[in-house]
Amino acid sequence: MDLALLITLGFVFSVIILIISMVLTSSLMGGVDFGAVHIVVLKAIPLLIAVNVLAAIPYGIYLAIPVWWIGLMILFRLDFWEVRTLVVVNWALNFIVRLILISLLK
């Protein structure tokens, strides 16, 4: 698959998954406030671009994790435990979506 297409698809799905994971994290942790959806998306766009580009290169996932973690803490002013829960929920949802996409593309 072309790298540009992979990054583009990853970005589109990442935005959707991020919103869903924020809703789930807020429900699990008892009301974590991320802000209005349109503001969340605008804040998340540069972070998601960086994470998806890093994740698309070989072994880039190891660089993407700290960027993701620190970016969430800074952009949304979350503490360590809120980011931990959000990252776990987000990565689990991304894993499930990638498995579905891979099975559909074969």
Write up what this structure looks like.
This protein is an all-alpha fold and 106 residues long. It has one domain (3-105). The protein has helices at 3-29, 37-56, 61-76, 80-105. It is globular. It starts with a helix and ends with a helix.
Structural class: mainly alpha
User: Quick one: biggest sheet?
Assistant: none
Which term fits the overall shape?
Answer: globular
Tally the beta strands: 0
Q: Which range best describes the helical content: under 10%, 10-25%, 25-40%, 40-55%, 55-70% or over 70%?
A: over 70%
Q: N-to-C SSE series?
A: HHHH
Segments where pLDDT lies below 50 for 5+ residues? Answer: none
How widely separated are the two ends?
Answer: 12 Å
Multimerization status: single chain
Whole-number count of domains? 1
Keywords for this structure?
mainly alpha, 106 residues, 84% helix
Short characterization:
By secondary structure, this protein is mainly α.
Task: Chart the SSEs and their pairings.
Elements: H1 3-29, H2 37-56, H3 61-76, H4 80-105
